[in-house]
């Protein structure tokens, strides 16, 4: 029922990630078929079972997800864990044909990519990525680390992919995001919490903040 974090958003992120991976030839230089499958699955799973609330709200209200994950990226940890829990059901086990080693490799990449979508990690990831590229100039880079960071940035860009769409498409996505924010603002009022910036229905929302 989320206006923004929905199955349609997951499909949009998947399609955008596909364009990024192939446009930048990352699938040729960084990914074997298993890695490509993991990247696509990370896009599909990255907001699975989203409650339509932010990490800050979950932490402020001591939500069970925040308690379970010790206030550290509770949403992103939940999306990954809930997705893999669902795939434990035999009829949903898409990984059944894989060997134990392949499942381990697949799971690690999916989790690392999903956790990267927490915006609180944005600047730390950018800093790590830039450091790796500076090291590349001196042939001192860890290529496994550079590969992972590139894929993490790719899914982050895909997660915000509607910013690169036509204005009308972007506005439709923004309308959904704004309504989801307002719904949280309503809950913050009910809980006696300060209303988060841009989450107050009585004031300008996130759509107005996009106007340059």
Task: Describe the model.
There is one protein chain. The chain is an all-alpha fold. The protein is 64% helix and 0% strand. It has eleven helices and no strands. It has helices spanning 7-23, 26-29, 33-45, 55-60, 64-68, 74-86, 100-115, 122-137, 143-159, 167-190, 206-209. The chain is globular. It starts with 6 loop residues before the first helix and ends with a helix.
Précis, in short:
This protein is an all-alpha fold and 212 residues long.
Topology at a glance:
Layout: H1 7-23, H2 26-29, H3 33-45, H4 55-60, H5 64-68, H6 74-86, H7 100-115, H8 122-137, H9 143-159, H10 167-190, H11 206-209
Helix pairs in contact: 1-3, 1-9, 3-7, 6-7, 7-9, 8-9
What attributes does this structure have?
mainly alpha, 11 helices, 0% strand, 212 residues, 64% helix
The N- to C-terminal Cα distance equals: 31 Å
Mean pLDDT value = 93
Number of strands: 0
Q: Percentage of helical residues?
A: 55-70%
Structural class: mainly alpha
Query: What radius of gyration results from the CA coordinates?
Result: 18 Å
SSE string? HHHHHHHHHHH
């Amino acid at each position: 029922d989320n206006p923004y974090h929905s199955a349609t958003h997951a499909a949009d992120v998947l399609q955008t990630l596909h364009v990024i991976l192939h446009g930048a030839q990352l699938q040729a230089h960084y990914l074997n078929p298993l890695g490509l499958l993991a990247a696509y699955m990370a896009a599909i799973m990255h907001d699975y079972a989203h409650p339509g609330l932010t990490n800050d709200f979950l932490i402020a209200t001591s939500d069970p997800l925040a308690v379970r994950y010790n206030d550290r990226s509770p949403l992103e940890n939940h999306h990954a864990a809930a997705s893999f829990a669902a795939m434990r059901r035999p009829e949903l086990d898409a990984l059944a044909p894989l060997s134990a080693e392949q499942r381990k490799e697949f799971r690690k990449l999916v989790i690392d990519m999903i956790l990267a979508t927490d915006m609180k990690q944005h600047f730390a990831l950018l800093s790590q990525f830039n450091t790796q590229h500076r090291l590349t100039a001196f042939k001192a880079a860890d290529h496994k680390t550079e590969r992972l960071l590139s894929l993490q940035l790719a899914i982050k860009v895909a997660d915000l992919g509607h910013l690169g769409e036509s204005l009308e498409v972007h506005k439709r996505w923004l309308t959904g995001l704004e309504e989801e924010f307002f719904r949280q603002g309503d809950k913050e009022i009910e809980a006696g919490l300060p209303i988060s910036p841009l989450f107050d229905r009585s004031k300008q929302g996130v759509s107005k903040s996009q106007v340059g």
